[in-house]
Amino acid sequence: MRIAWVLGWAVPEEWFGLLVKTILPDADHHFFPATEAGLAHLCEPVPLKHDPASVKHESVPIDYEHVPFDWVVGYSLGSLLLLCERCHGLTKNNNNSKDMAPTRVALLAPIFAFPREAGLGGKVPEAQIRQLARGLSRDPRNALEGFYRYAGLNVPSADVPTPPVEDLLWGLQRLEADRVDPPLPAGWRAWCGADDTLLDAARLREVCPEVTVVAGATHHPRALIEAFAAEVERADPGALGDIAGRTCAPGSARSTSVLSSFERAAPGYLAHASAQEDLAAWLAAWLPAARAGRALEVGAGPGVFTRRLLPWNGELTATDFSPAMCAAGRSRVPEVRWRTMAAEAPEPGPWDWIFSSSMLQWAEDPAAVFAGWKKRLAPGGRVLAGLFAGGSLEEWGALAGEAPLRWRTPEDWRGLLAASGLRLLRDDSEERVFYHGSAAAMLRSLHGTGAAPRRRLSPTRLRELLREYEEQHRTVDGVPATWRFYRFEAGTMD
Asked: CA-CA distance, 439 to 437, in Å (whole number)?
């Protein structure tokens, strides 16, 4: 499946592309900036057998083939440009074959008119758009970083692009001046985050009922890309490979809430991560004496376990599905290569080692995760992982009748490893109790690491639970929270 992506204003291609390739790893992706040149290239025939990036460089000789895109996707400003240019053939197949299916179009964070004054779903005043333009003229990088923070994009400083200012100003002019009246063209699909800081999702639904509002999602593209992936799979089952077993099903409420929780927790995670720090230290005791080879860490967060891998002789890549966590990790452990990646879709190996600490308990389908890891391991490769198992937070679970996630026992994990074809080499479990000054402090520590309960409790019920927790469990050392650690080493059958 071939997908063309028209990016948002000033959105870095590498940052956006990593999200896309993590969620849709089996598709053939082509990225076009939201510029005049980007739109022109989208109209051109695409080379069938050539580096897709070459379409952006006129100096590179290309043998063009008339190959259509299956989908054209516009994100943010990219959506507005597609809407504006829909009568000019931008999304046509560029082919004459009657056997080819027509190109389908999807809009993520769709814009009909960006200024708030237009009343078509935009939240940003015209004066603020002009203020951003003035900021670009004075200090482009500072203006871009301020925009990313305001929009909630969490673009790491290292990934902030330096495109020509004239291209950025051209994009702002389009955002300020362009207007397209709903509805969407027939067959087009669109998704907007319910908590988008730049767009009013409720107003968009009023003016264009075809827009799907994604609960909990923001202007950050990840949840919107997941919703798009789910639609592609629905419309054309199997076109994207096996996506059914992903840790968080594309577009699901759980994927959105878990990602949002970790995005919020990233800046202050380490201040609350005493259990995660202890688990990382306990797991590190099983690290190989010779720390060498190609190694991948999955669910690295801000680098709690990553720094225990150093020094490492060979390629070491740390990953997390939260861009904000990767940014925090890159800042804390800059010696390591950092990438945004889903656990069940690891970067191509082969890897001699796959490490994971404090992540696997979040997997809704660990069998799919293990299957993905097994495919990427080199012959004789190993997996070394630590996680929180059944028995964790039992005090809170007994009172509240809920837990932040589904706890699996060591026996469950052994069965999952066996089913995946990974051979268990050794494992161990241990119970540890951590004390907090109060029940409220214990709960704050959970939220501080992203481990928020699934259901929201009313303030009255929450106060009742915290009071009961204190009454039932307070000791001279404070209020306890029990965690069950589990670690294992597994390998291929080779």
From this structure: 7
∠ CA(232), CA(242), CA(231), 5° rounding? 15
Dihedral sign of CA atoms 317, 269, 385, 346 in order: negative
Same domain, 214 and 296: no
Spatial distance between the Cα atoms of 231 and 22, rounded to a whole number of angstroms: 17
What average pLDDT score do residues 191-212 get? 94
Measured between alpha carbons, how far is 6 from 215 in angstroms, rounded to an integer? 24
- CA distance linking residue 420 with residue 373, whole number of Å: 9
Please tell me the number of Cα atoms within 13 Å of 89 on its side-chain side.
9
Residue 214 forms beta bridges with which residues?
A: 193
Domain around 145: 2-243
For residues 306 and 209, state if they share a domain.
no
DSSP state letter for 199:
B
Cβ atoms of 339 and 347 closer than 8 Å? yes
Instruction: Please tell me the distance from the alpha carbon of residue 129 to that of residue 120, in angstroms, as a whole number.
Output: 16
Cα–Cα distance for residue pair 407/390, rounded to 1 Å? 5
Q: Among all chains, which residue has been given the structure tokens 């991948």?
A: 296
Instruction: Tell me the C-alpha distance between 410 and 3, whole Å.
Output: 42
Looking at the fold, whether 212 and 284 belong to one and the same domain comes out as no
Residues 6 or more apart whose Cβ sits within 8 Å of residue 461: none
Split into its structural domains, the chain has a count of 2
For residue 363, which amino acid is it? A
Using CA atoms, how far apart are residues 69 and 103, in angstroms rounded to an integer? 6
Averaged pLDDT for residues 50-72: 50
Determine, yes or no, domain membership for 252: no
Task: Give the strand order in the sheet containing 337-340.
Answer: 337-340, 316-320, 295-298, 351-357, 377-388, 479-491, 423-436
Domain presence at residue 249: no
List pLDDT tens digits, range 99-140. 445 678 999 999 999 999 999 999 999 999 999 999 998 999
**Domain co-membership, 66 together with 109:** yes
> Do residues 63 and 210 both lie within one domain?
yes
280 and 407 assigned to the same domain: yes
In a domain, 179, yes or no: yes
Residue 377, domain member (yes or no)? yes
Structure tokens at 311: 């020094």
